[in-house]
Amino acid sequence: MLKLIGSALIFLCATYVGMSKYQELYKRKRVLSGVRDGAIKIRDNLRCMCMPLYESFLSSGEFFENAASNIRKGQLPTEAVKEAFNANCHLNARDRECIRRFADGLGAGDCKGQLANVEMFISEMDRCVDHAEKELGTKGTLFIRGSILTAAAVVLLMI
Amino acid sequence: MYINAFTQHFPVNLTETLLIMGTKDMQEIRLCAGRNAAVIKSGRLMDTGVYISKEALDKIIASMCRGSMYAMQTSLVQGFLTLSGGHRVGVCGRCVTENGRVTHLTDISSICIRVAKEVKGAANEVMEYLECNGRLYNTLIISPPGCGKTTLLRDIARRIGENHKVCIADERSEIAACKKGIPSYDVGKYTCVMDCVPKAEGILMMLRTMAPEVIITDETGSRSEGDAIRSLVNCGAKIITTAHGYSDGGSEKYADKDIFERIIILSGRNGPGTVEKIITDGRVIRRA
């Protein structure tokens, strides 16, 4: 009986570890997709109305809204965006580097320059989202299957 | 408090100094990189003693533009930007030109903030000459800079806008100071505002689409603006506008007598808004 309970616990823990790893990869993909969609809205606001960044960020999704609230506190857009995304733990170093480059190009120059900066960021984000999707498909599946198989193997050994 | 509209962008020491000096009768604040800030208060130019570095001025400009200078380039290339509340900020720096036209303004070295105020009742002295028995008159207000033209115009819009269909072509967002389409100042119950529009285009747009009884605009003078005003008057609407000039320079002789039925000359002799002369049909009917 105890063996059975112990086996069930081991199985659940191992599966949980696999699922957590999968969730991390899923959240990274979700965050990057959200950022890319937000950047597309910012691009459209720039193209159609040459909208100031604060107003543009307000209507560009959760992540840019956090940057907008930083601007409201008195930060410049460059620092506001960097701070908003530094707080997000689902992004890896490469993602943060893309966002840092985008943030450094904000605010100065003319509307065309801003538009070029955003469009470059969108194409980088497209690459990051593709990469995240591939990782989810390969590593994510591996984590889940691996954790279930490992758990099953341990349980069988115990039994 | 209206002064918050620009002091929120200032360093703390400058804001504190301005509050100590008193903000009543403050007309202008002048900030130059590498020099002390100055103010014009009750017509006198005064040194605040607060040093403004280039870095501090850059921060002030970035704050005024909310980190989006590109969004302000249209007005910056004309040498100004407008803060909420209708305060006009004149900007000096290095111009980047292309084919003789200014395309960018960079390395900003000084700014001049013209403090805007709403003075309800500023038009009390002149209203009887502008409107009589429901009839409005084409009016030109002439004054030197800083003598209250825009403040007077704003109150005229408010008074006339209570009973007439008024349209304002507000090129620099100074008259109505619209924020997201809503005027910050009381410009009248039936007044419509076209914000940030070149005056000539604004006059013609509103003439075609808004059926105005009177169009109000500030600081006209170019040929295209004159043509737009002529079209407006030919269509039966009225115009009330302002121009730069001096009370003792005979500036009124340059006004088009075929259009303007009333000419009001202002000065700063007894403070902004001093009415020096009112001219009707070529005759001076009132003198200070």
Care to describe what's here?
The complex is a heterodimer of chains A (159) and B (288). Chain A has helices at residues 2-49, 53-58, 62-72, 77-86, 93-104, 111-158. Chain A is an all-alpha fold and 159 residues long. Chain A has one domain (2-158). In chain A, α3 packs across α4 (77-86) and α5 (93-104) packs antiparallel against α6 (111-158). The longest helix of chain A has 48 residues, at 2-49. With 288 residues, chain B is α/β, with parallel strands linked by helices. Chain B folds into two domains: 4-114, Beta-Lactamase, CATH 3.30.450; 127-287, Rossmann fold, CATH 3.40.50.300. Chain B has helices spanning 4-7, 12-21, 54-64, 73-76, 127-130, 149-160, 199-209, 223-234; strands spanning 26-32, 35-41, 44-52, 80-82, 88-98, 101-114, 131-132, 135-136, 139-143, 166-170, 178-179, 182-183, 191-195, 214-217, 238-244, 262-267, 274-280, 283-287. In chain B, the strands form four sheets. In chain B, strands 13-10-14-15-9-16-17-18 form an eight-stranded mixed β-sheet, sandwiched between helices. In chain B, strands 3-2-1-6-5-4 form a six-stranded antiparallel β-sheet. In chain B, α7 runs parallel beside α8. The longest helix of chain B is centred in the middle third of the chain and has 12 residues, at 149-160. The radius of gyration of chain B is 19 Å and the shape is globular. The relative contact order of chain B is 0.12. The chains are: A mainly alpha (159), B alpha/beta (288). The A-B interface holds A 50-54, 71, 74, 76-78, 80, 106-111, 113-114 and B 62-63, 65-71, 73-74, 104.
